[in-house]
Amino acid sequence: MTKKTTLLFIHGVGNGDPENKWQQQLGQSLAEIDYPALENIDLVIPKFAHALKGADEPSEIPPRVHKRPNRSEAPQIRRDFERRMAAMEFKLGRYNQGKSRFGDDLLIHAAVEYLPHMAQASLYLKNEDIRGQVLRRILSKLPNSGRLVIVAHSLGSVIAADLLMRLPKDVEIAGLVTIGSPLGHKAFNIDKVWDYLKEPPAHLSWWVNFWNENDPVTAHRGLSSRFPWMTDYKIDALSLSKLQAHKAVDYLQRPIVAEAIGYGLYGAKSKEIVAKESPVESKLSDTEQMAMFALRFAHLINMRLENDLKERYSGALRQVQATVIDGIMRWNESEGRRTPYSLSRLAFDLSDLDAETPVPSPAIHLPIDQAILPLSALASENVIRPFEISVKPEIRQAALEDLSAEMGLSSKFGSDVFKAAKEAQVTLNGQGGLNWKKWGAVSLGAAALVAATGGLALAAAPGLAGAALLSSALASFGPGGMIGGLITAGSLASVGGGGIAFGLASAATSAADMEAVVERMLSTEILRSLQGLPADPAVRRTLIETEIQVRREYERLDEFSDRNATGLTEIKKKLTSIERALKYLIDNDSDSELDFNEDGIIIE
């Protein structure tokens, strides 16, 4: 049986908005974004303006009936809450908490103390009889059970926070939307509500707050600096007047505000994000193909996990997949190209908590020489970034073996990827075992390489994508995300020429970042050898050019710098890495015409 939903609107004071005006505006805004205009919803709009002017009689503050979760319950409650908040961020977009300015808190405190139109707010904060009377009046209007969506404006948001733990035990808060809230200021930290709400209450589904630059009450910021578990969204005020910008109606006109309220009242609204056309497959771009491999690899890993680890990994993968596919579809739309059906079928509405996470189909067949870069990148990258969940190496390797078998390469190819990576690590630093956290430096350090080379390092990559497509993808997804990380990782392993050599030698690239890039290049060469494939001459050429650039930089600084200078130490580390890589390639290639002299310098 569906629970009855009640909308509680807790208004501010002195906002000049008649009740029917905000109600009419909300209904209109909901209808404009295809939600029912407050149909089958019980409205509760408590009137308490008179109570804020003075207490009729002594009135005790209602007790907090909801207790904070105990230690054993808290992790699961928080995990479920974060899942719902991720759904809200997927629906509403990227949050923006703003930034307070010097003196804001002092101004708000002075306003509460001395301005006549803030007198009622001051009484609520200071007079317990008035506060108790207001809280009890609101509670008397609410049902004892069912779903409750709270929309709270201005002082009403302070009252809503004060009320959260005092609601009937069988009431589920299906959503809390605050608008024009002063709750982030010290003057409104009533009854130490900041401390009491350090963690989200178990009966609260989600909380989002909206603020705008012109609203003097919000003072340029949201609330998440005080309540880190909720999210803030900045909107542009429709009104030119700062006083008008604080009105509830001004907030309720915005589609994003109505979207949050509508979601709380009616649940997920189908985004129809899967292609409507017949499932005719178009060719995957290199970026799309890498994303498909990554998601398939992540699902193969997830299939092998159990218990709490599986639950956490599944939750992270769900968010990553929804975000990645949505990002690719938006990117394709901006590029004027159609998203292939094999990708669009993986889309789902993350805000629909009951929606299944589609599982990618088995990977497409790929020639062995074309599989080296993407599978090497997958083995060393965190495919559920930004989440970090440690999975046993043998599970990752077994999943990659399955993936390579699906691609018609045999499971041995997958095991050879890990074998090559381990050998590369041992060669460079004497440690075995693939560590994707360390190898993540390849993509995280890409920004420095791009800056140092003016974009040449990545644009010159001949492997996964052409220059234009690669630049566009990185601009859309960023080098630090899952897609950007994989693109960059694969590209840096195959890039050649002076651009990458100069970038690696540059002081802007750390020794750790350079070692990670060199290690990946070396591992792909080892893998080629294990598979009986000819070496890639671009790798050796790049390493030699880099060694020359690094040594030049060392000679330039060595004559004048202190012996223990940090810059020299970094350069020495770079030289050690690259010389070890080159020596390995030379020692394991009988046809090589290269050698080292007694000082360790390459002789051609």
Q: What would you say this structure looks like, in words?
A:
- The protein has helices at 19-32, 74-92, 104-114, 119-126, 128-140, 155-163, 193-196, 242-245, 248-252, 255-266, 286-302, 307-335, 341-344, 368-380, 393-406, 411-429, 436-439, 441-444, 446-453, 456-459, 467-477, 482-494, 498-505, 511-530, 537-558, 566-587; strands spanning 5-10, 42-44, 145-153, 170-179, 207-212, 231-235, 595-596, 602-603.
- The chain has a 6-stranded parallel beta sheet, sandwiched between helices. Strands 7-8 form a two-stranded antiparallel sheet.
- The longest helix has 29 residues, at 307-335.
- The radius of gyration is 29 Å and the shape is elongated.
- It is 51% helix and 7% strand.
- Strand 7 and strand 8 form a beta hairpin.
- The chain contains 26 helices and 8 strands.
- By secondary structure, it is an alpha/beta fold.
